[in-house]
Design brief:
Layout: H1 2-12, H2 34-48, H3 54-71, H4 75-91, H5 97-120, H6 122-135, E1 142-144, H7 146-150, H8 152-155, E2 166-168, H9 172-176, E3 182-188, H10 191-194, H11 199-210, E4 214-221, E5 225-232, H12 235-243, H13 257-268
Parallel strand pairs: 1-2, 1-3
Antiparallel strand pairs: 3-5, 4-5
């Protein structure tokens, strides 16, 4: 009951006391529940360990976790729970079970810390983001991740001013509605891990760009960030695109010498 009440309270709690603003339920936000739930498990351990069918109950719970992990395509978690479950069920009577089990619990914590540091590389992202914004003309829109946009006051707190040309990727169509001659895109790839839902907006933007009159004039990409600058094509650029054999709609123009000669005579007359 205590665990159930804790989960319900967490689900309905607000991120601020000024007004009701439900917490965005991202899987990583549930980590805060691990501590109090672990205490509840330890408090009830003496009771459920005395039950003759406790291994069956634990097996069912672990199997449920494995099912959910594979259902969400989380192969790493599915494999980890499968291995831990088999070890717990079949080796719990071994005298080395407890120290090995504790070690197996600690290893993922250390590995996840290293993974987070390598995936985020927060200092690299923040430094490049600040430099990118500072080096961009205030009239040129910069489209970036939604979660980056919402954190702009913290990320850009060291700048002498707060830029007004930042736009969230979900509003890219509003930016294009203003018919800019040039715009930039700054993508922090950490969204794939923390906010995968943003892929929908990025994909729709990419699709629009591919059929638009904008061309890429500058690009940088590494393991953590991707920046690109797009500029509207000039008339000469558009003609070149249509007349180029490699374009999507190439125009095959072949010189007709007879037609040119007749045209020249008519012009002279």
């Amino acid at each position: 009951m205590a665990a159930l009440c804790l989960i319900i309270d967490f689900w309905l709690m607000s991120s601020t006391l000024e007004f009701y603003n439900p917490i965005y339920i991202n899987p990583r936000h549930l980590i805060i529940l691990v501590g109090p739930l672990s205490v509840l498990v330890a408090m009830g351990a003496k009771g459920w360990l005395k039950e003759p069918d406790w291994k069956i109950r634990i097996s069912v719970l672990i199997a449920l976790g494995v099912f959910v992990a594979f259902l969400l395509n989380d192969l790493k978690m599915g494999a980890y729970l499968t291995g831990m479950g088999m070890f717990y069920v079949f080796a719990s009577e071994n005298k080395f079970f407890k120290p090995v089990f504790v070690l197996l619990m600690i290893i993922p914590v250390v590995a996840s810390f290293y993974f987070q540091v390598q995936t985020k590389n927060y200092s690299h992202f923040k430094n490049n983001f600040n430099q990118y914004v500072l080096a961009t003309d205030s009239q040129i829109p910069i489209i970036t991740n939604n979660f980056v946009y919402f954190s702009k006051e913290v990320l850009l707190g060291d700048l002498p001013y707060q830029p007004e040309n930042l736009c969230q990727v979900s509003d890219w169509n509003k930016v294009m509605g203003q018919s800019p001659g040039e715009f930039k895109v700054f993508i922090y790839k950490y969204y794939r891990h923390a906010y995968p839902a943003e892929q929908e907006f990025i994909t729709s933007l990419e699709s629009w760009i591919s059929s638009s009159t904008f061309q890429i004039v500058d690009e940088f990409e590494d393991e953590w960030i991707q920046t690109r600058t797009f500029r509207k094509k000039t008339v000469e650029g558009l003609l070149h695109s249509f007349l180029s054999p490699g374009s999507e709609y190439p125009v095959d123009i072949e010189a007709d010498t007879e037609f040119i000669a007749e045209s020249a005579i008519a012009a002279c007359q």
